[in-house]
Each structure stands twice: as C-alpha cells, then as structure tokens.
Specification:
The chain is α+β, with helices and mostly antiparallel strands and 245 residues long.
C-alpha cells in the first residue's frame, strides 16, 4: 500500500499539473483571442472615426474655400495648354499673359509646379465646350470656329483683326492693331481672355463639378471629397461642394 501511494502520488501530481497547464493554456488562448478581437475592433473603429473626420474636414474645406480662393484654370487643346486664367470668387477671371511655361510643366506632368500658390488647378478639355456656339461680351464676340483658330494660330490677334476689318484689313490694320495691343498685350493674353468668355458662357447655369464628374475637367490636387464626388451620384454630394465656379 505504501509502495502504491509512493508511486501514484507523483503520477497524480503530474496529471494535475498537466490538466492545469491545458486549462490554463486554453484560458490564455481564449483571453488572448478576446483581447485580440477587442484590439482589432478598436483599431477598425479608430480608422473609421479618423477617416470620417478627415472626409468631413476635407469636404468642408472644399465647400468653404473653392469659390473664394484663387484657382488656376487652363485649357487643354490636343494635349497642349493654350490658355489660362486665374479665377477667384465671382469676379472676372484674370488672363495669364505667358502660357508657354505652363504648357512645358503640363507636358512634364509637374502639376504641383503648375499649381504654385493657387488653391486648385483645373484642366478643361476642349470637349467641355463642345455645345457652345458663340462666346464673348458686348465688345468682343467669337464663334466657336473662330475660338478654335484663336487657340491654334501663332498670331491670333492678327487673325481677329482681319476678321473684323474684312476687305479693309490692309488699310486700317495698323491703327486697329495698336488698339488691340493695348487691350491684349500678348497672344497668350488674348487666348486667355477668349478662354474666360468660354468659361463664363459654359458655366453660367451649371457647376464645374458636373463637368469634373463627366471627365471633361480634371482637378488637382484631387482629395478624397473630389473622389467621392466622382464615385457617387452628383445629387448625393451636391451640398458638399460649391454650386458654381
């Protein structure tokens, strides 16, 4: 009997220790799994909350700042920037005098350099204005056919003068040319003024964001709100963005 007890006691203790280890390990695994699940849930919640705050701030920034801050608007015709204006608030856009530098940066895809200190860079494709027939104001009027020639000719001011004078171009070209030069100091400036007419006509009753959704306008930098504007039905996000240019 004493021999059996002396043999069994260590076996019982080993069994007890083994069972305790198994139970302890099982509890530990269960605890770690529960803890891990809690950590994962907390991480997911933090990501969701953080992303929501970022989207709300970005949307509010776009809604508040898009109209009043300066934006560089450029016209892409056959993959070349041919005209540009600076737009701010509801005032008349300011034509850019030298567009060649912007075109060089555009070909290099250096959009950050094009953006400069402006709030946004907007690139308008020619097809954005495909429905226009005539653009201009009370003083200067252009058919869309004339607009395309203005954007592609080396000397669009001379072309404009010839169109205005007709058969009298040779006689009065010098006088009219000096007057045109006072209003439009460079050909780039002239093109950019015509471009501002195009924008005013095309977006007088529409939002530039609709053209952006249709792929006719690119906006840089393209933040998360702009991506949502493109992904979601426009009516869903209309309140997040400015209604007009």
């Amino acid at each position: 009997m004493d021999f059996n007890l002396s043999v069994m006691n260590p076996l019982i203790w080993v069994l007890i220790i083994f069972i305790a280890l198994v139970v302890g390990f099982a509890l530990l695994v269960r605890f770690v799994k529960a803890f891990a699940r809690t950590i994962v849930i907390l991480v997911i919640l933090s990501i969701v909350v953080g992303a929501s705050i970022y989207v709300i701030r970005d949307a509010n920034d776009l809604r508040v700042n898009f109209l009043p801050k300066e934006k560089l608007l450029v016209l892409d015709l056959d993959n070349n920037i041919v005209a540009a204006v600076i737009s701010k608030d509801i005032s008349v856009p300011v034509p850019v005098t030298d567009v060649k530098g912007l075109n060089t940066l555009y070909h290099a895809k250096d959009y950050q350099a094009m953006l400069g200190s402006n709030y946004k860079l907007l690139v308008f494709k020619w097809d954005t204005f495909k429905d226009l027939k005539v653009v201009g104001d009370n003083t200067y009027t252009f058919s869309i056919e004339d607009v395309k020639k203005v954007m592609t000719l080396e000397d669009p001011k001379s072309y404009y003068i010839e169109q205005q004078l007709g058969s009298d171009a040779a006689m009065f070209a010098g006088i009219v040319s000096s007057q045109v030069d006072k209003v439009f100091p460079t050909n780039d400036y002239f093109r950019s003024v015509v471009f501002s007419f195009m924008i005013a006509k095309s977006f007088e009753d529409a939002s530039v964001f609709e053209a952006y959704v249709n792929g006719d306008v690119s906006i840089y930098p393209e933040t998360i709100t702009l991506k949502l504007v493109r992904w979601l039905p426009f009516n869903w996000v209309r309140d997040f963005v400015a209604d007009k240019m």
